[in-house]
Amino acid sequence: MTPINTWGRNMGRGFAVVDLETTGLFPQKHDRIVEVAIVHVSPTGVVEGAWETLVNPMRDMGAQLIHGISAAAAARAPEFAALAPSIASLLRGRVPVAHNASFDARFLAHSMQQAGLVCPEYEYWMCTMQLAGTFLPGNRSLADCSAAIGYAMQNAHRASADALAAAALLRAYIGAGRDPAWWDGWLATAGEWPDEPCDTTAWLARTDSDTAPRSVLERLHVDVATDAVDDGALNLDYLALLDRVLLDRYMSATETDDLIRFAAELNLSSTAVRRIHRAYFDGLVSAAWADDQLTADEWADIQKIGGLLEIDAATIAGAASKPDAAAPTLTTGFRLSPGDTVVITGETRRDRSAWFDILTERGLIPKDSMVKKAKVLVAADPDSMSGKARQARAWGVPIVTEDGLERLMGLGAGE
Fold first, then answer.
1. SS3 per-residue string spanning the chain
2. What's the pTM value of the predicted model, to 2 decimals?
3. Among 101, 238, 272, 343, which is disulfide-ready with 125 (CB 3.0 to 4.6 Å)?
C-alpha cells in the first residue's frame, strides 16, 4: 500500500477497532456473530468512543465455553440485520482495525452482505497481530502482545475487552516513532460509504443483559391481572408443565416464560401458583422420606427444588426432618426407557460421540436431528435458539441440560 502524504487532511478521521465473538469459525457454514464491539481511536492513538452489543444469532450459541454468552442473554439482543446500519455508520470514514483481522474482516463482510450492506474488504483492514511482528517481535496472541506493552487485559473473549486491548496495541504502535507518513497512508484509505437510512435499534451490552430475570412469582405478582383465580384448587395443567420444567432440576429463562404465560392463560393468581409450588415441594419431601431416611442426594435435591420453587428458607430447612403427615406425590414419573429417542443439540460438555455410546449401551436411540417422537432434547444451553430447540418447543418435547440427562439416566457426573 503506497503511503499518501495527507496526514493533516486526515487528522479528523482515525481508526475503528473491531472485535467479534462468534458461534464458530465459518460464516458460510451458518456460524453467526454473537457480540460486536467497536472502539474509535484518533490518528494519534486516543480512544474517542466505544460501543458494544450482543447479537441474537437465531441459532445455538456454539462455543459458549469460549465466549461465555448465554442463549437467554442473546435472545434479548437485536439480530445482526437490525444492527448493520449502525455498524456501517461507526466504520464509515475510518480505518478498520482488528487483532487477527482476516477473521473479523471475513466474518463481518459476510454478515453485512447478508444484511444488504457493504464492508471494507480485507486489504483495507489493519491487523494488530501482523504488526506485532514489526513492533513486538516474538508476540502474536492478543494476551501476549498486551503483556508486552504493559496493558492489563481483563475479560478475554469479551468483545469490548478484546477491542480495547487491540486499541491499546494500536496506540503503542502509533507511539513507537514510525514515520507519520506511513500512518497517513492508512488513514487515506478510509472509505466514505453512501449514507444509509438512520437506524435507531438499541444496542444491548453484555453488562445490560446480565441482570437476572425476575422469578416466576415476582413476575406473576406484577404481570398477571389482579382478578386472577385463586379458588384453593391445584391446577393440574399447570402442575404438569411445572413437573416437565423441573425434569432436569433447572429452570431456564424460556421455561420461566412458559410458566408465566401458562399461568396467565389459566388466569391463576400468584397466590394460587405459590400454593401449587408448595404442594409440589411437599410431595417431593414426602417421597424422599418414604423409606424413613433421607440420603445426601435426596437432601440436595430438596434444597435445589425448594430454591427453584421459591419456597421459604424455614420450610426448606424443616424438610430435613420427616414430615408429620405424608403429602401426595405430584410428579408424573417421567423417565427414559429403552427404545426412547434422545436428540442432542449444541456443543455439549461431554463429547457427542461419547453420549451416543452411552445412550446406545442403555438401549436408547440417540439422534442428531430432531424427530417428533423424541422423548427429550438435550441442549448445552436449554434456552438454545437452534432449529432443533425451536422444533422441540413446537412439538412439546422437553428440553433438558446435560446434567438433567445424567439425572434421568442415573449417571454420576464423572461417569
1. CCCCCCCCCCCCCCEEEEEEEECCCCHHHCCCEEEEEEEEECCCCCEEEEEEEECECCCCCCCHHHHCCCHHHHHCCCEHHHHHHHHHHHHCCCEEEECCHHHHHHHHHHHHHHCCCCCCCHHHCEEHHHHHHHHCCCCCCHHHHHHHCCCCCCCCCCHHHHHHHHHHHHHHHHCCCCCHHHHHHHHCCCCCCCCCCCCCCCCCCHHHHCCCCCCHHHHHHHHCCCCCECCCCCCHHHHHHHHHHHHHCCCCHHHHHHHHHHHHHCCECHHHHHHHHHHHHHHHHHHHCCCCCCCHHHHHHHHHHHHHCCCCHHHHHHCCCCCCCCCCCCCCCCCCCCCCEEEEECCCCCCHHHHHHHHHHCCCEEECCCCCCCCEEEECCCCCCCHHHHHHHHHCCCEECHHHHHHHHCCCCCC
2. 0.76
3. 101
